[in-house]
Amino acid sequence: MNSFRTSSSSTSRRKVLQTGAAVLGVLGMPAIVRAQTGPKIRVGYWPIAAGLPFYAAVELGYFKEAGLNVEVLKFAGAQQIMEGMLADRCDGSANGTGSGNIAVGELAAPGTFKIFCSNPSNVKNVLDQVIVPVASPAKVMADLKGKRVGSGPGIQNVTLAKTVLERGGATGATVVELPIGQHVAALAAGQLDGCYTLEPTGTIGRLNGTTRVLEAGVISKYVLGDPMAPWFGGSASLTSSFIKKYPGEAKKFITAYGKGVAYVRTKPVEARQYLKGYTAIEGALTSEVPLAAYTMYDEFKPADVAHFQKFFDLFTERGVFPTRLMVDSMLYKG
Question: If both were cysteines, with which of 91, 100, 218, 280 could 242 make a disulfide (CB 3.0 to 4.6 Å apart)?
Fold first, then answer.
């Protein structure tokens, strides 16, 4: 009987010691391991160059270092990302997701989206452009009058394509929705006379000798009225519900994402390698494709917000938005 009590007591002590060691072991684990018990942050991206800060942050381990469990979700287009966020299949979007698409979602469910980083472009930081076959006689936008012009799918792309063509003098042009990855082939095959498109399409066509850029930075020029004005065409965002439910993780995510932005800004040459795998950009194209600029939520100046608002107001003027949407109400405040 005594021997049983001694054995039982010894066993209990061993269990206590083992349990204590296990707890200490978990507490001593790096954040990368502990992150598995935290909320999963589902982030959607569209495979274009503008998402580079997100790609870099994933590959360089910035999210893991912050103890975050980030799930990377690839979507066919910006509209699908927005719809995924509305349906709670996605908690956030990477840069490159159309700001206009996000705005449509915000109007459908007010208070859902918070933009924490945007990627402005213009004639210098090129993202948007109109391209034509390399042998096309077109020299200015007006030369596409009455022609068939391709556009990426979705309300943002189509609205912008129609506006650019009209304001550029290409009246009577027919806009055809087509996945951006098919623009160069469609032009080379003579199916279209031009395309409103986004990089790296123009660079791909130039490198393979089938297309040329008719005009770049067209949104800044024809929508904002200044070729150097920043067009905040794509944005990274989180849902308000995620921010409210997990405020600590949301702040850590945005901080880690900001490290990705800083990396792209300071080491653009090295950063380009992370386009591979996330986009169709590889080989010679990696060093040729233009890189976007980025503005974090705490870097917006009044003039930036004004340009952003002018972009949103276009959709109100065109009847896409039923009411005016204020950009400032959608910006993350920290």
Answer: 91
For the segment 228-244, the average pLDDT, to the nearest whole number, is 97
Query: What sign has the CA pseudo-torsion 185, 179, 168, 130?
Result: negative
Determine which helix (DSSP H) or strand (DSSP E) holds 130, and give its type and residue range: strand 128-133
pLDDT for residue 28 is more than 90: no
For residue 176, what are its two tokens? 């055809």
Q: What is the domain partition of the chain in residue ranges?
A: 2-32, 38-123+230-330, 128-216
Using an 8 Å Cβ cutoff, are 125 and 232 in contact? Answer: no
Architecture of domain 128-216: 3-Layer(aba) Sandwich (3.40)
Grouping H, G, I as helix, E, B as strand and the rest as coil, residue 140 is: coil
Give me the CATH topology for the region 38-123+230-330: D-Maltodextrin-Binding Protein; domain 2 (3.40.190)
Locus of tokens 């509209």: 79
Q: Cβ distance 211 to 133 under 8 Å?
A: yes
The reported pLDDT for the residue numbered 27 is 36
Cβ-proximal residues to 69 (8 Å cutoff; 6+ apart), any chain:
35, 36, 38, 39, 40, 41
> 280 pLDDT band (50/70/90 cuts)?
confident
**Other CB atoms within 10 A of residue 323 CB:** 6
- Residue pair 111/240 in contact (Cβ under 8 Å)? The answer is yes
Return the ∠ at Cα 300 (arms to 298 and 306), rounded to 5°: 150
- Structure token digits, residue 22: 């296990």
Non-local CB neighbours of 144 within 8 Å, separated by 6+ positions: 130, 132, 138, 165, 168, 170, 173, 193, 194, 214
